[in-house]
Amino acid sequence: MSKQINVALIGNPNTGKTSVFNALTGLNQKVGNYPGITVEKKEGICKLPRGVKAHIIDLPGTYSLNASSLDENVVIELLLNKNDKDFPDIAVVVSDVENLKRNLLLFTQIKDLEIPTLLVINMADRMSYKGISLDIDYLEEHLQTKIALISTRKNEGINNLKNLIANLKDLPIKPCLNASEIDQDYFDNLRKAFPNQLLYKLWLVITQDVNFGKTDRNEIGAVANFKTKSKADLKRLQQKETIKRYQFINNVLKKGQTIDISQAKDLRTKLDRILTHKVWGYTIFFVILLTIFQAIYDWSSIPMDFIDTVFASLSEWTKNMLPSGAFTNLLAEGIIPGLGGIVIFIPQIAFLFLFIAVLEESGYMSRVVFLMDRVMRRFGLSGKSVVPLISGTACAIPAIMATRNIESWKERLITILVTPFTTCSARLPVYLIIISLVIPEGRFLGLSYQALTLMLLYLIGFGTAVISAYILNKILKIKSKTFFVIEMPNYKLPMFKNVALTVIEKTKSFVFGAGKIILAISIVLWFLASYGPGEQFNNAETIVKAEYAPQNLNEEDLKQKIASHKLEHSFIGITGRAIEPAIRPLGYDWKIGIAIVSSFAAREVFVGTLATIYSVGSDDEATIKNRMAAEVNPILGGPLFTFASGISLLLFYAFAMQCMSTLAIVKRETNSWKWPVLQLVIMTAFAYIVALIAFQFLK
Predict the structure, then answer these.
(1) Exposed, middle or buried, 312 (CB in 10 Å: 0-12/13-18/19+)?
(2) Residue ranges per domain, the chain?
(3) Which fold has domain 1-263?
(4) Between 450 and 489, the higher pLDDT residue
(5) pTM above the 0.85 mark?
(6) In this structure, are residues 561 and 610 in contact, taking their beta carbons and an 8 Å threshold?
């Protein structure tokens, strides 16, 4: 039976830790959340020599064990808790060859916890390029460890790394230096008060917002003969500790590392001057964004059309091949369209994550965050908020998940709450069909009125998100540390393996996260649309045949009339009728009401619901448009879809929280129902008021 060991991958951000994780685990990895918190947990399995199996945890990036964010707290709490099932048998500290001095601060701290610690020096392929040479034997001797010199880009040194992990018993657990010298008396007293506890663990409990075992900082302060220190004194001691560690690191690197500056070739400074420029930086970013979204819509249209056709054919085939009955109808009209509603968005989401992964891997995304911080800060957002707001144009679900790297809870919460205002791809089918119905043909400065309307809806969404953030920043009385630190990593060519794994993991997360909810709602909607109370539903066939007897309708038309009658008197039809008085002032009838209710599952359901309501057997868009264009307003007469009602509907969908999946994700990310409920109520009320004003003004 093979033995399993726990391996913790730890390191500063941008050291290539994810690349090491991917090199060791490949596709044998999964992403979840730590219990009770929203920090992402990545873990995977790796086979090591001599039948050893490694359970590898990729911990969030941290600069030191002096925590300043939720992510960094996770690292400390795991390293302090020996009872945790994920407590590491070995800590693998990943550093990069160009920032070795800074990376070694974290390494020396972890060594003080007396966990077997291995040092990985990544990006070894850049050593000759940067004029760096290392004396590995000298470094191993003075850092009290083994060193794996690797290059994940060239796949060099990975087997040696696996061997060193498998031989973890050969790693010394002795600390590199005696950090307690910063205040010998204080640490001697601490040692006497808790003779059975590791000194550096006690120090972390005293200085950090973490606990371990049964000891917490209040207990330490209550122990007799132990004199506690004020917060200011502890902060000064922390600074002394950092200085002492860097003095040790400098002394080791004086002999262990040589840098020949004359050999260093660097384009980075020149590129940074252009890409973070006050004018050109924003221009280049805007051009890149336009290119990305144009590519997303162009490239995804073919696979999306294919998926649409496949699911429509599958639904039709199920109806024809299986015996007729409730189960067949559930499959053909509930489950298969529900699955199709999830799968159809995979191409757009995969392409979006492909572009974001390429921008992050290349090092450009850090420049974007730095650039946008100047603008976002004025509205109560962080520069890092720009990534979720951009991602929101594909889907709000992964966009909200992308807020996890915002350190300030207030800025993160505001970003989560305003992201659904940005126009997502699910609104696009609604926009396109309504625009084609109510916006006339014609051009202004070479651009069609319809294209300009669509662009305006995107701008309105983004503008509302930013203004809402400004208001929330003034209203929310949340005390939260606000600081902005962003590291500018070196530019590099993205690694295909990293990009591919990111796209697969994120897309999988969407499919299984939002997918389960969309599928469940689709089944519920099918039930509500397929069944109803009373005689009007149960005797629909008899009633319709009697009503249309004089007209001699053919069998197909009669079937459609019966289906329409049943839908009107089904549970969902009754719901539509019930809400009609509330939506009539917006220019909508009960049928649009049903579409609005059903599209709460997912906005894109709106068009499909109207297609069913208007008795359209075909998915042909022109047929749906013709039916919708011919629909008569029961109160005012004339067409139902006028310029006034169309604009009202577009604005309603621009602002309303018409997405149950997004609410579920907001609940998961905030660990509370308070925020998604407020979001639903406020956004829907705002959408209603704006749509009401628009219709009443334009009619």
Answers:
(1) middle
(2) 1-263, 280-475, 497-698
(3) Rossmann fold (3.40.50)
(4) 450
(5) no
(6) no
